[in-house]
Amino acid sequence: MHIEDLQALCRQFPGVTESIKWEHDLCFCVADKIFLVVGLDQVPVSASFKVSPEDFEALSSRPGFKPAPYLARYKWVALDDVNSLAPQEMEQFAKASYKLVAGKLPRKKQNELGLEV
Q1: How far is CA 63 from CA 30, 31, 73, 94, 99, in A?
Q2: Which SUPFAM superfamilies does the protein's record reference (predicted)?
Q3: Residue 66 bridge partners (DSSP)
Q4: Counting CB atoms within 10 angstroms of each CB, which of 11, 23, 27, 78 has the fewest?
Q5: Which residues pair with 39 in a beta bridge?
Q6: DSSP SS3 for 112
């Protein structure tokens, strides 16, 4: 999956914004809360995203995944190469991360953004 494909996918989610942070990371956010980070200056392209506590343990031991630096305590994983996954699987992880982060927003903010979480 290319960065452009991830952008197109994430832009479909309600209330999503994107920005460059830390000079070289493309961050996808909902209400200023990051749910997916893509390393733009890395080859192959890497990504980090939030997962459920159950998935965190399983994914952390899966080849190509590791606990995300600085964010592992919040159940984030880092994927070494976004192209190592089928596009459908990457799409599932992006959607799940979005739902986890959006679901933690205050109800008022969710309503403002028209979120159905």
Answers
A1: 29, 32, 20, 19, 25
A2: YjbR-like
A3: 78
A4: 23
A5: 25, 46
A6: helix
Identity (one letter) of the amino acid at 62? R
Other C-beta atoms closer than 10 Å to the C-beta of 76 total 21
Residue 65 φ then ψ, to 5°: -115, 155
Which of 44, 39, 47, 41 is closest to 79 using CA atoms? 47
23 three-state secondary structure: coil
**What domains are there in the chain, each with its CATH number?**
3-106 (3.90.1150.30)
Q: Compute the distance between CA of residue 46 and CA of residue 43 in angstroms, rounded to an integer.
A: 8
Cα dihedral 20, 25, 31, 36, rounded to 10, equals 150
